[in-house]
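QA checklist item 7 of 12: single-chain prediction sanity check.
[x] sequence parsed
[x] length recorded as 71
[x] structure emitted
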Amino acid sequence: MKKGTHPEYGPATVTCACGNVFETNSTVKTMTVNTCAACHPYFTGQQTFIDTEGRIDSFKRRYAAKQAKAN
């Protein structure tokens, strides 16, 4: 096999936006991620709800207007 064709694979430090730090193996020495198992709703069982730009409120207003016309 040729030497030097693959990058070096070794320990890497992963830092999450929540502050959790853990180690894994990778070709990159340090990584930064937005979510990890410590803060992701699937793993924590806590669901966070973010209503971007009032989309739910505008939907409810449109739906209420259609219901008022139907009655």
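[x] summary fact logged: The beta strands are 10-16, 21-26, 30-33.
[ ] second reviewer sign-off
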